[in-house]
Amino acid sequence: MTNPFGHNPFESNPFHSGPAGMPGPPPPQPPMRPREETNVLATLSVVFAFVLAPVGAILGHLGLSQIRHTGERGRDRALVGVTLSYVFITVAVVALIVGATLADDSPTRVARPTTTTAPAATTSTTPPPPPTVAPADLEGLLPSLDDAKNITGDHDLTVNRTYRQITRDPNDGSIDRPECWTVFDEGAPDGYNVPAIAGFISIEYLDVRTATNTWQAAQGVAAFHDAAAAQAQLASLQSQWRQCGGSTLTATMSGYSFKTAMSVPADAGNGITTIDLSALGLPLPILVARAIAAKNNVVIDVLASSSGVTIDRLHQVALTITNSILAKIPG
To answer: What letters, b where the CB count within 10 A reaches 16 and e where it falls short, cover 77-112?
Structure first.
């Protein structure tokens, strides 16, 4: 019969299979309450996020791991520490990259004023132009008689004529092509801008003793007011030589009329231009080597001739005299 008042507490448990009167199993323990402490690593992660961000990130991750096992408080705090640490690490990395980029650009900006001022320094150190040769110093540029004897190898040379201005010698005779006087004769007035000349001297050395080997060495120097005028005169002489070169003319001198062949002008180096002449139809064949050059404010005009040597030997003499004069001119 069912008890209408419910189960009698003094009766044994009808659902218990053990013997009557024995106590039942202990009641289940209540669930473990979370600990009230805050995780220390979570707190330290927030602190180190501002002091040393990498350490703060590590402490935050360790704190989160401990909280999952212990149930301590501070999970939010650990997340804040981790987040702040990564933010500060990112900011530091970006700042380092920007700083390195600016450091690479700074040398270029510093170097620009140096390149800008360089031309001024170069301009200020430009050497002044060399002093011009005064008319009174022209004679010292020419080789002496002893020098001429050593250069030609003819020790019977003597001083034949000296000119201190450009003028026509009456003994020069005549030629059928006056525009070629500058080729035929050293210091011919036909080829010079005489009013522009500040000073002139020409010395002719001649061997009158040896009939079969008549050496002649003549050298003249003309001083102009500046180097530009001297270069203009040289260019004019070169133009006349090119006009006459490669052709012939007829000359009449000392009762003889003879043909003279003129070679094409050539560049002999060191600013020297040369041209050769060959006199035809004379008792003795005469060869002539001519040379002209200019340096500073001086124009050089040289003639070497002989009836007993080759044209190469005459070239050597003319170039030696010309180079010796060039070496004495300043600049």
So the answer is: bbbbbbbbbbebeeeeeeeeeeeeeeeeeeeeeeee
CA distances from 52 to 62, 91, 293 (A): 16, 13, 84
Token representation of residue 290:
């001519």
Looking from the CA of 314 toward its CB, the CA atoms found within 13 Å total 27
Max CA-CA distance within the chain? 187
Range with the largest mean pLDDT of 16-25, 32-41, 62-71, 119-128: 62-71
Return all residues near 241 (Cβ < 8 A) that are at least 6 apart: 182, 183, 265, 273, 275, 292
The residue segments making up the domain with residue 319 are: 135-328
Contact 54, 92 (CB under 8 A): no
- Provide the β-strand partners of residue 99: none
User: For 287-296, what is the mean pLDDT?
Assistant: 96
Q: Nearest-5° angle of CA 183, CA 297, CA 300?
A: 30
- The answer to whether residues 191 and 250 belong to one domain is yes
Read off the pLDDT of residues 136-173 as tens digits, 9 standing for 90 and up.
Answer: 999 999 999 999 999 999 898 999 989 999 988 777 78
Cα(15)–Cα(165) distance, integer angstroms? 158
Q: Are residues 140 and 169 in the same domain?
A: yes
Same domain, 90 and 148: no
Together in a domain, 101 and 191: no
User: Which tokens hold the place of 293?
Assistant: 């050059």
Distance of CA 256 to the CA centre of its chain: 60
How is 296-316 classified by DSSP, letter by letter? TTEEEEEEEEESSS-HHHHHH
Other beta carbons within 10 Å of 269: 9
Contact (CB, 8 A) for 311 and 289: yes
